[in-house]
Every structure is written in C-alpha cells, then in structure tokens.
Design a protein that fits this description.
By secondary structure, the protein is mostly beta strands. Helices cover about 0% and strands about 40% of the residues. It has no helices and five strands. A five-stranded antiparallel sheet has the order 1-2-3-4-5, with no helix packed on it. It is globular, with a radius of gyration of 15 Å. The chain starts with 13 loop residues before the first strand and ends in a 15-residue tail after the last strand.
Length: about 80
Amino acid sequence: MPLKPNAALCKVREQIVEDDASGLVLQFECTNGRTRLVIVGEKLPFGNREFIFDDDGREAAAGTLLGGFRRPSWLKKVD
C-alpha cells in the first residue's frame, strides 16, 4: 500500500539486514512473488535457517539452510 496519495507501488527483490547486537543476518529474497527468508549467524544452535513463503505470504516450508550463505558480491558496507 502506498504511503503517499499519488505514490505507486514498488517491488523489493532483495533486502539484507545485519544486526550487530545479535550477530544475525536476515536476507529477504522475492522471485516471481515467492518470498524466501534466510537467517544466518554463529549464535544459531542448530545452524542457519531458511523459510519459504507461498504467493499469499503463508509459510510453505522451513528448515536448516543447506549449503553456504550467499552474500552478494555487490553489497558494500554502509558506515
């Protein structure tokens, strides 16, 4: 929903949030309306987690992330 009266909707395809306090990284990806959330960090006792959501935003699958975390090569640190 747009926040301004004449604003248009936009699509966010990827967002990465790094929380220094917890040491966790949250990566949201959206491809063809399907959303994926990856939570990574050394403090997770059972390994990195992956959540996949269906077209309506309901959880479709969840589990331990197999393979390594893919940090985009274009990502630059913001000071």
